[in-house]
Amino acid sequence: MKKKKKRLRLNLNRNMYSQIDANKRKSAILIMVFIAIILVLGWLMAEGLGYGYEMLVFAAVFAGLMSLGGYYAGDRVALASSGAKGPIKKSDNPYVYRIVENLCIASGLQMLKIYIINDSAPNAFACGRDPEHASIALTTGIIERLENEELEGVIAHELCHIKNYDIRLMTIIVVLVGIISILVNWFYRISFFGGRDRDNRAGGILAIIGIVAIILSPIIAELIKLAISRKREFLADASGVLLTRYPEGLASALLKISTYTAPMKNANSGTAHLFIANPFGKKNISKLFSTHPPIEERVKALRKMA
Description:
66% helix; 4-stranded mixed beta sheet; mainly alpha
């Protein structure tokens, strides 16, 4: 039994480090995939609506600027939109500060900035483009409701999101999904009110392609985002256990969090994927369209590691 657990931990360690490298590669690949979709939408607007190739250039420049803005300012937007206050000093909350500090030392990360969200809903999230520019936010509800080992499990989970570069990956994806939604909305409005030269449109085929793109592009982009978000949660759960060496701490925390059904005061779909649990509370959402895997599945996976 001991040998089996040792092999499991070794496999998880190898998987964690390989996932860090994979996340860095996927960041670059996903940027290229999403920008390709954006350029196709720009081309459809140029060809189908008679706007010329300046629309394609505009789409490329717009995508690049928005990506850079999201990459460098995404953490500040997430913290502000959730109502997080801070960063706190050690004297503000010694209990939370020491837990984060100890786990940062154990994980090899530099000390994170800690923010507090005044909300009774138990939840937490991490943000930042890399470990050197990372922050963690905890609700007052999660600090008050969880025992020490449970809170350690939650914070370890969030630290592992940072260490695994999950935050960078998801920030890039969210920004690019947003760009696609904006461009599709523009395409729809322009095509509805008429292009620059209606007589020179490329005909019925481009019109059909444009309609299909309008319908499918944001759906496909959103499904990619949600699928990656769910997979990252399982990896962060496993990585967090490697840090605390106590699977039951996080498992018990997730079960307590799941019993609180009310949504967070500042819950919004743009940052929902960042939180350890769905900030909208308990909703009957199809797994395909959920930002998080079911708590029951996560707890089951954690208890297999015990």
